[in-house]
């Protein structure tokens, strides 16, 4: 099947070109639902959120101390005031202190009407009903104005924002009990290959355990995703076509691993061309060259390579940004750092490489990175040890010890 949105692909795309195509082609979903704030972490806002109240609702004290009106007092000399009561957090002082009077007050407690200053208790000496204030004493301090954080009806968060823990705290403080969010994406995933054996079974000669499905399940552990493990499909084009057509009818996106290369048992490309549309197939990256992207009916399809490290790379670089775009979430730019390489890195020009590294920061603040180990795309142990990608551009012909390189940390929440 041909489509103007899915042009023929004869040359290798760069990573940037592939990601651009994914974002230009995919149209975000429109469905939404309202969920309690306690269930909203990681969900994507479907509409802007406004404050229900001022925060703080009233003036309150920024520290433990004594509140009073500073009129007629001098901060350059000791003075004494009569204590007439206490303002507790949640139990304010009732009344207005007169001139010459003060109120004991605690952090977060409402400042009594008429008071314009709070002095820390460390600057005072309290008696039975009288408090002496020591010079020098600063007036008109340590009071948080009402609405100094935000005001009622103020826009707090813009859609389509993916809610993080700080956002949840903010909305709770604003009195927001529920939010309207994008519905969850329905995502199915499966592995392909006659060599794959389930965990718990004895391996026959030539078999390996199916690690890719477990890797994908972990990568897809997102509150915005409703995931469905579809198991393993054998290296059979009819079985693969039946799986794609059936699963596409019930999911927003499908992810497969394996079968996307050019071997005689690799059927993803030919089956996708038969039952759907293909946008691109091969990328100028390593690992992850045989990545297929297309569509089957109304379902988007990502055919990932079979090597597990290539699955890791292509998910982070293309699938996750594509799924976020499908969800309608704002794009999150990749954090990039410059680090000095403490390893000699081998590379042949022609493709951008994402090597696995261990990033550290020295006492002087300088970042250094070391190769996590051999860079073969089947080596999950090395990937597990790593905490970043070392990004070597297309023209790079290798890196010497001491050279500066670009790195992308795996998990830093900005």
From TrEMBL:
Do you know which SMART domains this protein is assigned to? MoCF_biosynth (SM00852)
**Keywords in alphabetical order:** Magnesium, Metal-binding, Molybdenum, Molybdenum cofactor biosynthesis, Transferase
Keyword Metal-binding set for record: yes
What reaction does this enzyme carry out catalytically? adenylyl-molybdopterin + molybdate = Mo-molybdopterin + AMP + H(+)
Q: Which residues form the MoaB/Mog domain?
A: 188-325
Q: What is its EC number?
A: 2.10.1.1
* SUPFAM superfamilies in alphabetical order: MoeA C-terminal domain-like, MoeA N-terminal region -like, Molybdenum cofactor biosynthesis proteins
CC cofactor: Mg(2+)
Describe which pathway this protein belongs to, using the record's wording. Cofactor biosynthesis; molybdopterin biosynthesis
Assigned protein family: Belongs to the MoeA family.
- Name the PANTHER family on file: GEPHYRIN, MOLYBDOPTERIN BIOSYNTHESIS PROTEIN
Q: Briefly, what is this protein's role? A: Catalyzes the insertion of molybdate into adenylated molybdopterin with the concomitant release of AMP.
Q: What is this protein called?
A: Molybdopterin molybdenumtransferase
What is the source species?
Methylomonas aurea
